Each structure stands twice: as C-alpha cells, then as structure tokens.
Amino acid sequence: AKAAGRNTYRFFEVAMAETARSRVRLQQELGHALAAEQFTLHFQPQMKLDTGEVIGFEALVRWQHSERGLIGPGEFIPVAEETGQIVSLGNWVLREACRLATLWPEALRVAVNLSAVQFRSSSLIELVDEALAMSGLPPERLELEITESALIEDHDGAQATLMALRSRGVRVAMDDFGTGYSSLAYLRRFPLDKLKIDGMFVRSLDSDEDAQAVVTAIISLARALHLDTTAEGIETAEQLVMLKALGCDDVQGYLIARPMPSAEVAPYLTRIRGE
Ligand code: C2E
Ligand code: CA
Ligand code: CA
Ligand code: CA
C-alpha cells in the first residue's frame, strides 16, 4: 500500500510539473499570439422571444493557433486572467468587436465579455471611450457582459464604474447569473440592464424541476428590478416554449444559431429576413 501511495504521489508530481510547463508555454504563446494578431471573434445572435427578431450578437473570442487550429476561450482565458494578459487581449476584443459591429448592415447591439480583472482596472472607462471613438459605434449599441465576481470585492468602485458606463449609454449585462457568489442582496444597488440566465439551468429545464424553479425565480427577480432576461445555451424547441411561457425576454443558443465569423453576420441576417 505504501509503495502504491508513493507511486500515486510521484504520478501527481510529474503531472503537476507538466501542467506548470504547459502553462508557461501557453503564457509565452499567448504573448506571441497577441503580437501576431492570431485572435478572431465569432458572433452569436440573440433573439427576442415574443417577436423572433435578432436584437444583437455576442462576441466570443477564438485563437487561431498555427499548429493546433481554432482554440476556444475556455482553454486560454483563465491563463490570460492569471498572467494579466487578459487586459491587452480584452482591450483588443473590445476594439475589434466595436469595429466589426459598425460593418454590419443593421444597427444591432454587440455584447462583449469583460473579465473581472478588466472591469476592476482603472483604465476601463478610458478604454471603452477609445474603442467607441475609434470605431464610431454609438454607445447604445455596446453591451458589456460582466460576472458576479466583478462586483463582489469593491462595491463602491463597481457602482462608480457602472454609473460611468450608464452615463455614456453603454449597457451592462450580468453574465452566468445564478452560478456565482450570491450578490442578490446587492443586485438592487447596481445599475444593470440585463441578467443572463446560465445555460446550466436552461439545459435541464425540460428534465429538472429545480432548474425550472431557479429560472422562474431569476425571471421574477429580474422583473422586480426592471432588468431584461436572456436565457443562454438554448438547444431545443421545448426549452424555447418553456422560456416563452416563463416570460423570458431573449434567447441565445445553438437552436437559434452557433457563433459565426463576422463575415457571416450579413448573409445570416439576409437569410433570416427572407424566411
Ligand atoms: P459565456 O460568456 O457564457 O458564453 C457562452 C458560451 O456558450 C460560448 O462558449 C458559446 O459558444 C457557448 N454556447 C452558445 N450557445 C450554446 C448552446 O446552445 N449550447 C452549448 N453547449 N453552448 C453554447 P465559448 O465561445 O467557448 O466561450 C466560453 C466562455 O469564454 C464564455 O462563456 C466567456 O466566459 C469566455 N469568453 C469568451 N470570449 C471572451 C472574451 O472576449 N473575453 C472574456 N473575458 N471572456 C470570454
Ligand atoms: Ca457572455
Ligand atoms: Ca454566459
Ligand atoms: Ca458560461
């Protein structure tokens, strides 16, 4: 048993060393990728439930790796957050999303994900102003998605940042709502525009009564606070019907469309208008 324990220990030691090495490599590669502009944005439509019209797109970053192909954000955003590289990557995303949105044939909204680190950084408002000025995108067309973790540490700072964004006309959505630290008590304090209901709850809507209860609660909370609701990760027609019955405002998910390159946005809009 002792030997087995030692072997297990050695196994973890080796695995951890390998993880650390691949982290360092990833960090170096990320730095290079930023300089070489190897990132690209895909856009996923958000649809209004009562009319079926597309109201905007969420920008989702991908890494066009020279050897490994297209890498999803789940693989590199956490590392970029740890190393601080998220600030420059995030700023690139913000600028690029604003720029690309101005090329769309309709004045639809573009939603951009912000890491907590970005949201809390003192340069955020300045960078948002720059991205809007450089692109010429009207502030009303920009929506920033933040997570509960962005708000928990410094309530006054977060409130000031949200007020500054609001005064410009930029909208703010609370992403992954229901999965984070419960900021329920503070929610009222913060000037938000929207709650995004996490796909985790949406996925189990048809099978799990607890998920239904959670979604119902989030929607009534949002109503009470005069916030919009977007359900994400919607994959089935059953989920769509249920969300509509529960009074959810908007939906986003593979059922509507998968995230697409910016060049496909115009043809997509033409196609759905023709339907
Ligand atoms: P998120 O903000 O919750 O984005 C939704 C994720 O769900 C996206 O994954 C999207 O492709 C995926 N998705 C959309 N519809 C469906 C569906 O019907 N079913 C399923 N199973 N998945 C669906 P993606 O693009 O891999 O992004 C993962 C996460 O990475 C995002 O979650 C967000 O937290 C983060 N992320 C993406 N882009 C950025 C960015 O530019 N900046 C920052 N800070 N984070 C980003
Ligand atoms: Ca998001
Ligand atoms: Ca989300
Ligand atoms: Ca999520």
Automatic annotation (TrEMBL):
Annotated ranges, domain EAL: 23-273
Protein transport as UniProt keyword: no
Keywords for this protein: Membrane, Transmembrane, Transmembrane helix
Keyword Transmembrane in record: yes
Name of the molecule in the record: PAS domain S-box-containing protein/diguanylate cyclase (GGDEF)-like protein
Source species: Aquabacterium commune
Lineage of origin: Bacteria, Pseudomonadati, Pseudomonadota, Betaproteobacteria, Burkholderiales
Section of the entire sequence shown: 516 to 790 of 812
